[in-house]
């Protein structure tokens, strides 16, 4: 019934050979390879996410509501893209590389849950504001909620860099991949 999947395996193997991917650098049970530049890419994305939040906060504080909403939309898109990329290239890779390490699996699961909690809160907040711009106010509760979203985001990103990213390593005995 799904014979087309078998054809794709042959294509994937040819693509790996064509692009010089080392089979041994693939996370066991996946087609996901170790990428030397992945963590530095995520560091840059983190800087950008925090910059976007800072720009949104600055626009809010200066009562430039249109600009505030535009920065929130940009933050929403960048965060969604970052989280999807992490899921596809980091979390799945780590889960497979450390499938026999209970402590690492628990760490990965904790980060996954924390990431989901932060993203849901952020996306819900941004969606409400972009759909109902009249909700923007200058009262203490509004600014408190905005700062709480920023704090959650900053805490998650810092924790990822300190605890999760250091365990992203190539499988032992494999060649470095440069893409």
Summarize, please.
This protein is mainly α.
Notes on the structure:
The chain has 179 residues and is mainly alpha-helical. It has one domain: Four Helix Bundle (Hemerythrin (Met), subunit A) (Up-down Bundle), CATH 1.20.120. 72% of the residues lie in helices and 0% in strands. The protein has five helices and no strands. It has helices spanning 3-18, 38-61, 65-97, 102-131, 140-164. Helix 2 (38-61) packs antiparallel against helix 3 (65-97), helix 3 packs antiparallel against helix 4 and helix 4 (102-131) runs antiparallel to helix 5. The longest helix has 33 residues, at 65-97. The relative contact order is 0.16.
Notable features of this structure?
179 residues, Four Helix Bundle (Hemerythrin (Met), subunit A), disordered C terminus, mainly alpha, 5 helices
Radius of gyration: 20 Å
CATH second-level architecture: Up-down Bundle
Largest sheet: none
Mean of all residue-level pLDDT scores: 84
How much of the polypeptide forms β-strand, as a percent range? under 5%
CA-based shape: elongated
- What is the CATH class name? Mainly Alpha
SSE pattern: HHHHH
Secondary structure: number of strands = 0
Strand-pairing-aware structural class: mainly alpha
Which stretches are poorly predicted, pLDDT < 50 over at least 5 residues? Answer: 18-24, 173-179
Give the CA-CA distance, first to last residue.
35 Å
Tell me the count of domains: 1
